[in-house]
Amino acid sequence: MRLPHFSRSQLGVILLLGVSLFLLWAWRANFFLAPSPPRAAIVPHVFVEVRGAVAHPGVYGFPQPPTLAEVFHKAGAAGPVPAPSAQDQKLSSGNLVEIGANGQHKIGRMSGPQLLTLGLALDLNTATAADLDALPGIGPALAQRIIDYQQAHGPFKKIDDLIEVSGIGPNKMAQIKPYLVINEPETRD
Questions:
Q1: Is the dihedral of CA 187, 109, 134, 148 positive or negative?
Q2: Phi, psi angles (nearest 5°) of residue 20
Q3: Domain coordinates of the chain in residue numbers?
């Protein structure tokens, strides 16, 4: 087999095209440049939901746990700001603040589906059957069995205790464990 013979000008064009393609590839892959530093973005890691007599109800993200006064201000609460003793109360991620027209407020927890959507874990000992139903692979019947087991045996000490509930095997446990947490009970003074 005989290879084709190229003239010097043809070889020059082929070489020029090859070098051009290599440089284009190197430029697109940032081959010659140092990687740019990541952007310094403030990612909210504390989420608080606000409902009720506010101008802007919804879920708000904060870089650190906000005070009740900050939440009132950000949501545009129509009523008076809470008493000074309550203004400085820090809220944790997953709190739900319901604000009445007279400025009274009630603090609770967001729903299970909302927590999971925000990437927050469910507290196994305070979750309702509806909250547990939002977990992947858990239906209403299994969620109710978990609640029934907890009522019969008391609060879960560790997440792995779920294996004792009928219908939860090792595979199901591995599937839902990343979405659960057991928080210490809050002590009120």
A1: positive
A2: -65, -45
A3: 46-109, 121-181
Residue pLDDT, tens place only, 31-51: 666 655 655 555 568 999 999
* Cβ contact 108:95 at 8 Å: yes
Name which of 94, 43, 47, 104 is nearest 72 in CA terms: 104
- The DSSP call for residue 96 is E
CATH 3.10.20.600 fits 46-109, yes or no: yes
CA atoms of 153 and 21, how far apart (whole Å): 69
Closest CA to 73 of 93, 90, 87: 87
Q: What is the CATH number of domain 121-181?
A: 1.10.150.320
Q: Do the Cβ atoms of 122 and 180 come closer than 8 Å?
A: yes
Residue 99 in contact with residue 54, Cβ under 8 Å? yes
pTM of the predicted model as reported, rounded to 2 decimal places: 0.65
Q: How far apart are CA 59 and CA 138, in angstroms?
A: 26
